[in-house]
């Protein structure tokens, strides 16, 4: 996707052929900056503090991180240690484990002296695959937006968090149908949940949509139900960090409440995902998916920008109070209208998922 008319990805192989460059998402939308990650430890830090975030992008970053660990020590022991460090950075997005498993499995038949080159190349392949997967998710989702638009009408989509191109290698998952609808001339407008506490909607999704020219309005996280009651939302499109084998959907905290409101108002609620986001080993999302608890500071404080351009963190809660910060929740499959994958749109159920080829 483009920033000021120039095509960018949020991650790319560095010119030195042994490290990786990222867009640093911690300062967006107030300041745009890139950062070179030169070691596995730097890749792990970037995932932990959310310089990169979003399930598919976390996976690709971890793949490059494991490759850089093998550059510095190609032994099995070093690979296992790096796997453990990277895997511990964020517990909820299954794409992280999927990516680490894919690199590790490829190393089993690779001589130690060839491991770095092979792993680094495979991380690049995984990045390119993600772009194509998301393009296809968009093509399938576009059919729903075309239907909703009918004969030239406006389509109002509500989305939560950032499942945009910044969360993937390109296109995004939930935003891919939106970008493709916009490019096709459909009059699409997006309600962007601000997505407290980290404001991925107000900061990242809004910034992306603005760069592409897509009409959008930032709303508070509590506004969606009201808009649905008044017929202002045609469909919801969200991303996910993990889908169970039975179709439960884990995504950014607050997704569940939006699905409840959509269900109560007969608004279709679709989840966009690449098939590596399916955790075939897990059946009951509420009982089995580990939910990341992040720092209370994310709830108690918020980043903003002064007119001087300086980015400042302000406390927005009563001094002396603490906070809890569960970062994800689980939407039961019964509240999900369908899963939009690169292989097509399927039911959020064991039978629906069974038709998919496993990656
Ligand atoms: O905590 P984040 O910003 O990594 O959470 C991201 C989300 O919840 C996304 O919806 C999900 O990872 C899908 S990204 C295509």
Describe it.
This protein has 359 residues and is of the alpha/beta class. The chain has 2 domains: 2-129, Four Helix Bundle (Hemerythrin (Met), subunit A) (Up-down Bundle); 142-353, 3-Layer(aba) Sandwich (Rossmann fold). Helices cover 40% and strands 20% of the residues. The chain contains 12 helices and 18 strands. Strand 3 and strand 4 form a beta hairpin. It is globular. The mean pLDDT is 97. It binds 5-S-methyl-1-O-phosphono-5-thio-D-ribulose. 5-S-methyl-1-O-phosphono-5-thio-D-ribulose (MRU) is lined by residues 53-56, 93, 161-163, 167-168, 172-173, 200, 239-241, 251-252, 327.
Summarize the helices and strands and which ones pair or pack:
Blueprint: E1 2-3, E2 6-7, E3 11-13, E4 20-23, E5 34-37, H1 40-48, H2 55-72, H3 76-87, H4 94-107, H5 112-149, E6 154-159, H6 175-184, E7 187-193, H7 200-212, E8 215-219, H8 224-229, E9 235-238, E10 242-244, E11 249-252, H9 255-264, E12 269-272, E13 278-279, H10 285-288, H11 297-300, E14 301-305, E15 311-315, E16 328-331, E17 338-341, E18 344-346, H12 350-354
Parallel strand pairs: 6-7, 6-9, 7-8, 9-12, 10-13, 12-17
Antiparallel strand pairs: 1-2, 3-4, 4-5, 10-11, 11-16, 14-15, 17-18
Helix pairs in contact: 1-2, 2-3, 2-4, 2-5, 3-4, 4-5, 5-6
The structure holds 5-S-methyl-1-O-phosphono-5-thio-D-ribulose.
Please tag this protein with its features.
single chain, 359 residues, alpha/beta, Four Helix Bundle (Hemerythrin (Met), subunit A), Rossmann fold, 2 domains, seven-stranded mixed beta sheet, four-stranded mixed beta sheet, 12 helices, 20% strand, globular, binds 5-S-methyl-1-O-phosphono-5-thio-D-ribulose
């Amino acid at each position: 996707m483009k920033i000021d008319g120039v095509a960018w990805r949020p991650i790319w192989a560095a010119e030195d052929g042994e490290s990786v460059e990222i867009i640093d998402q911690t300062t967006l939308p107030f300041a745009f900056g890139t950062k070179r990650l030169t070691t596995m430890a730097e890749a792990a830090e970037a995932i932990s503090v959310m310089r990169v975030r979003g399930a598919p992008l976390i996976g690709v970053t971890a793949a490059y991180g494991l490759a850089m660990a093998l550059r510095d020590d190609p032994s099995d022991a070093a690979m296992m240690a790096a796997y453990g460090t990277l895997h511990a950075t964020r517990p909820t997005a299954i794409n992280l484990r999927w990516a680490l498993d894919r690199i590790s499995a490829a190393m089993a038949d690779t001589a130690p002296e060839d491991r770095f080159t092979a792993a680094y190349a495979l991380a690049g392949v995984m990045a390119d695959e993600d772009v194509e997967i998301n393009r296809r998710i968009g093509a399938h989702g576009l059919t729903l937006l075309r239907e909703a638009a009918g004969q030239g009408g406006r389509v109002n989509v509500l989305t939560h968090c950032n499942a945009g191109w910044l969360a993937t290698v390109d296109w995004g998952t939930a935003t891919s149908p939106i970008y493709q609808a916009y490019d096709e001339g459909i009059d699409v407008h997006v309600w962007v949940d601000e997505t407290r506490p980290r404001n991925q909607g107000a900061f990242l999704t809004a910034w992306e949509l603005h760069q592409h020219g897509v009409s959008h309005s930032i709303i508070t996280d509590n506004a969606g139900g009201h808009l649905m009651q008044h017929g202002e939302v045609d469909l919801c499109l969200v991303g996910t960090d993990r889908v169970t084998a039975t179709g439960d959907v884990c995504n950014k905290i607050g997704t569940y409440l939006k699905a409840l409101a959509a269900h109560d108002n007969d608004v279709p609620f679709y989840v966009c995902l690449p098939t590596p986001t399916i955790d075939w080993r897990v059946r009951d999302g509420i009982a089995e998916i580990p939910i990341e608890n992040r720092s209370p500071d994310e709830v108690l404080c918020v980043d903003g920008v002064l007119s001087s351009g300086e980015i400042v963190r302000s406390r927005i809660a009563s001094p002396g109070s603490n906070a809890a910060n569960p970062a994800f929740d689980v939407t039961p499959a019964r509240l999900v209208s369908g899963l939009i994958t690169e292989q097509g749109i399927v039911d959020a159920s064991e039978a629906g998922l069974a038709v998919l080829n496993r990656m």
